[in-house]
Design brief:
three-stranded mixed beta sheet; alpha/beta; 16 helices
Length: 411
C-alpha cells in the first residue's frame, strides 16, 4: 500500500515534536535550561562572546594550564598537519596507527609512571570501554555515589555485581568491599568536577590492598595541574610512588588541562592496556585520534616535564581567589588547593541570573543546576587558570562581590 503524503510533518512526527516541546518548556520554566553562549575567538583567559562588544574574562573553562591556545601547542598541531595529515579515515587496528600515536601513548605512560597507555577519542569513551572488558558477571565493581556520568555509564555496560558507596565514605566503602565477589575494581574520580573535592586516595588504596581490589581513578580534573608536578591526585595524596606497584588504572582526558582539544586515555598495567586493545569497543570501532591533536599533545607533555611553573601559577591564582571570596562571605566548596571553586547559591534561577549579571560585567561564568547537580544545590563553578593574571582574578572577585550584594547572597 502506498504511503500517504503529507504537506508537512507526519502525525507521528508531530506527536514527537509536541511531547518534546512540552518537556523543553518545563525545563525552561524550572530555570534549568542550558543556553549555549557562542565564543568567536580562540579559548583563552579573555574571549569574545556573541552579543558582547567587549572581550570577557573566561572563568569557566577547563583550561587549567592555559594551554588551549598556547603558541607551542598550536605550532605543534600545525606541524603535525603538515607531516601526518588531517585524519586517518580508519580505526587503529586497520590502518589508523601512526608513529605519533605510539609516541604519545609512551609519553603519557611515562608521565603517570605506568607500564602502558591506550588512546581513545575521549575519556567518556575510555570509561565506557573499560569495565565490560575487565570484569565478568562473577566480579564486582564498587563506585563512589558522585562519580562522573561517564563512569556510571561504563559501569552499566558491564555484567559485574555493582555496589555503590556514599561519597568518599571509607566506612561505607569497606562495607562494599566485604560484600564484593570475584575480581573487584573500586572506581572513583580523583577530583569530583562539580564539587572540587578530592578523593582520599591514600586510604582508598590501602583498603584496596587489604581486600585484594584494583583501584581505578578518573583524573580528568587533575592530570597535568594537580599535585606538586601536575601528576594528579595520586601525587597530591602522597602515593604517586605506588601507582605502578599496585596496578592502579588511570583514565583521563586530553580535552581539559592538557591542551583542551579532544581525546582520552587509559594508563595502567600492560596487560590491562593489551586486553583493551583487543576488546574495548569504543577503541576498536572509533576513528583514531587526529594527527594534529596527537602532535600537539606530545608537545604538552614535553612542556610539563620541562617545568612546573604553570602548575605553580594556577595554585597561586587559586589561593588568591579562594581566600578573598571566603573573606567576602561566599560559601565555597571543594578542596582549598584545587582550582575548581564552586560558589553555592542553592536556587537554580538565582544561579542563572547571577551568571548573566556577571557577563554584563565582562566576567564569563556559568550557573549549574539540576540535573548536573542535585536539586537545591545550584552553584556557579569558577575554574581558575594559569593564564589568568592576579589582576584578572581580583577583577573577577570584585564583580562577584558587587553582584553578590545586589542579589542578597552576601551582606
Amino acid at each position: 500500500m502506498a504511503s500517504k503524503k503529507f504537506s508537512g510533518k507526519t502525525p507521528t512526527a508531530v506527536a514527537l515534536s509536541s511531547r518534546l516541546s512540552e518537556t523543553l518548556g518545563e525545563i525552561e520554566t524550572a530555570g534549568t535550561f542550558k543556553h549555549e553562549r557562542v565564543i568567536t575567538t580562540a579559548q583563552n583567559a579573555e574571549v569574545k562572546v556573541e552579543g558582547s562588544d567587549a572581550p570577557v574574562m573566561n572563568f569557566c573553562a577547563n583550561n587549567y594550564l592555559g594551554l588551549s591556545s598556547h603558541p607551542r601547542v598550536v605550532g605543534a598541531a600545525k606541524d603535525a598537519l603538515d607531516t601526518h595529515g588531517f585524519g586517518l579515515s580508519s580505526v587503529r587496528f586497520i590502518c589508523g596507527t601512526q608513529d605519533i600515536h605510539k609516541q604519545l601513548e609512551a609519553d603519557i605512560a611515562k608521565f603517570h609512571e605506568t607500564e602502558d597507555c591506550i588512546l581513545y577519542p575521549s575519556c567518556f569513551d575510555a570509561n565506557a570501554g573499560l569495565f565490560e572488558v575487565l570484569l565478568s558477571k562473577a566480579d564486582t565493581v564498587i563506585s563512589d555515589s558522585l562519580n562522573h556520568a561517564s563512569i556510571i555509564d561504563g559501569v552499566r555496560l558491564c555484567k559485574a555485581k555493582r555496589l555503590r558507596y556514599e561519597h568518599m565514605d571509607l566506612v561505607d566503602l569497606e562495607r562494599c568491599l566485604k560484600e564484593s565477589v570475584g575480581n573487584t575494581i573500586v572506581a572513583t574520580d580523583g577530583v569530583f568536577s562539580m564539587d572540587g573535592d578530592v578523593a582520599p586516595l591514600k586510604e582508598i588504596l590501602e583498603m584496596c590492598e587489604a581486600y585484594g581490589a584494583t583501584l581505578f581513578i578518573d583524573e580528568c580534573h587533575a592530570s597535568g595541574f594537580f599535585g606538586e608536578t601536575g601528576r594528579g591526585t595520586m601525587e597530591h595524596c602522597g602515593v604517586q610512588d605506588r601507582v605502578g606497584e599496585c596496578g592502579v588504572i588511570i583514565n583521563s582526558t586530553l580535552g581539559k588541562a592538557l591542551g583542551g582539544a579532544t581525546g582520552g586515555y587509559t594508563a595502567g598495567p600492560k596487560e590491562v592496556v593489551g586486553l583493551l586493545r583487543q576488546r574495548s569497543r569504543p577503541y576498536l570501532f572509533s576513528n583514531s585520534l587526529a594527527p594534529s591533536v596527537a602532535g600537539a599533545s606530545i608537545e604538552v607533555f614535553k612542556m610539563l616535564t620541562e617545568s612546573s611553573s604553570l602548575v605553580d601559577k594556577v595554585q597561586e591564582n587559586t589561593r588568591r581567589f579562594r581566600e578573598r571570596m571566603t573573606a567576602a562571605g561566599f560559601d565555597l566548596r571543594g578542596d582549598p588547593t584545587h582550582p575548581i571553586c564552586p560558589i553555592m547559591l542553592g536556587d537554580a534561577r538565582l544561579a542563572q541570573d547571577f551568571s548573566s549579571d556577571m557577563l554584563a560585567k565582562n566576567i564569563y561564568v556559568i550557573g549549574f543546576s539540576y540535573p548536573v547537580v542535585p536539586l537545591g544545590k545550584a552553584r556557579i563553578r569558577v575554574q581558575i587558570s594559569a593564564s589568568h593574571s592576579l589582576a584578572q582574578v581580583d577583577e573577577a572577585i570584585d564583580a562577584f562581590i558587587e553582584v553578590g550584594k545586589a542579589r542578597g547572597v552576601i551582606a
